[in-house]
Amino acid sequence: MRKILLTALAAASISVASAQNSAVNSAILNHKNGTLDKALTDINQAIEHKKTKDKAKTWFYRGVIYQDMIGNPIYGKLTDENTPNVVLESYDKTIELDGKDGEFGKQVPERKEQLYSQVLNQAVEFHNSQDWANAIDKYKLASKINPTDTTAVIYAAYAATANKDYPAAVGFYDQLIEMGHKTEDVYKNKIQLLQATEASEEEVMNTLAAGLKEHPNSVYMMQEELRYYLKNDRGEEAMQKLDKAISADPKNASLLAVKGNLLERKNDVEGATATYKKAIEIDPNNFDANYNLGVLHFNKGAEVNNKAAKLDYATYQKKGKALEAEAKKHYQAALPYFEKALEIQPKDQATMQNLMKLYTRLDRKTDADKISAMMNQ
């Protein structure tokens, strides 16, 4: 009698376990048939039961079922903003239980890649509608799903900047740097944000130093660093540092262009002109040297024109025409440098504006109209 009783208990135990395993199998079958609501009910029962809650298979299919409901025209209404988190949790638990090389664990990377795309697309939709808070949340989740991909972090930084949450944007740029994504734009954007948040000069200078270590030829960062030196009456130190860099790399046109800018700030127009010309000799396509040299000649012309404009009538009759002719020579001298600058950077608005002024002052209306049309495109 005792033997019969034990056998009956064992049979009952097997029956319960089998019932729960069938819940997982039923979930898989309903998922395969496209009845995701039934699959969801089955898998949620299995995930709660002690016999199946610690099975990799249960967690994997929980992730699959929830994931396949995202964006589904019929069953999408059963999801909410937390659904991607549920999916990610399910796949992480699958790996924990099954390992990366288990039957279900090895299927997780492909599924996570799909999830990353789904969440990133949701983030982009929020981004395009300028719902910055939700966009940032989705970008964060996308980055959590795929911590090695920089796309979500970059756009999170853009969204935070658009939302004027500058400290958050700086945090995203720091994350990119930690990930090894140390482009010039990352440092440039971080520096501009630090300046916008009135961060300490030390923090800005440290970021400039780190950026210049990665991008020693960055004109923007060199100029910003020099600006801080000049602001703190460290102009000589700035020039010494720059001269040392040029001595080590004398054929570097970008360094010479920065030096020309520094000389210009010190009101050494003659020295700046010579340095810009040297930069152009080394690299005719250096935008900054061409543009700045054009500005120097243009300003000389404007200065002479202003003198002529301030003359009284009697003096103008004697000297006015000569001054205007002199101004015109400076404008003519500026013209090829601005034209070359526009050739190098065809969409630069400042160059086009200066060219339009020059063409107008040189009575070249057709060329001025052409530039005006380009600016309005």
UniProtKB/TrEMBL annotation:
SUPFAM superfamilies: TPR-like. SMART domains: TPR. Transmembrane segments: none annotated. Pfam families: TPR_11, TPR_8. Keywords: Repeat, Signal, TPR repeat. Residues 1-19 form the signal peptide. TPR repeats lie at residues 253-286. PANTHER family: TETRATRICOPEPTIDE REPEAT PROTEIN 6, UDP-N-ACETYLGLUCOSAMINE--PEPTIDE N-ACETYLGLUCOSAMINYLTRANSFERASE SPINDLY-RELATED. This is Tetratricopeptide repeat protein.
